[in-house]
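User: Teach me something about this protein's shape.
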Amino acid sequence: MVDTTSMKAGGFVQEAKGRVKDAVGAISGDAAMQAGGKIDQFGGRAKHEFADLYDAHESRLEAVTAFIQERPLVSLGIVALVGLVIGRLFFRKRG
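Assistant: First, the predicted structure itself:
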């Protein structure tokens, strides 16, 4: 599984680094450094949000994984049925 604690910490560090680069770029007039800082801020925020989202849905993901491992044939049947329905919806015969 994903270690969300270290992902959140890395996101916070990257966001803080981005804020510093953004501020230094603004003070020195270096637009490239300022843009890099904004990108780092966005990347850090994205890591943190992904970790929060993963934490919120981790139990559901584990339940689905356990179901697939315990009942592989039923899972395969469900996937085949869903594929058939999608195929019928999108690829109807014209005639």
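Now, about its shape. The helical segments are 4-28, 31-70, 72-90. The CA atoms of residues 45 and 53 lie 12 Å apart. If you'd like, I can walk through any region in more detail.
User: That's plenty for now, thanks!
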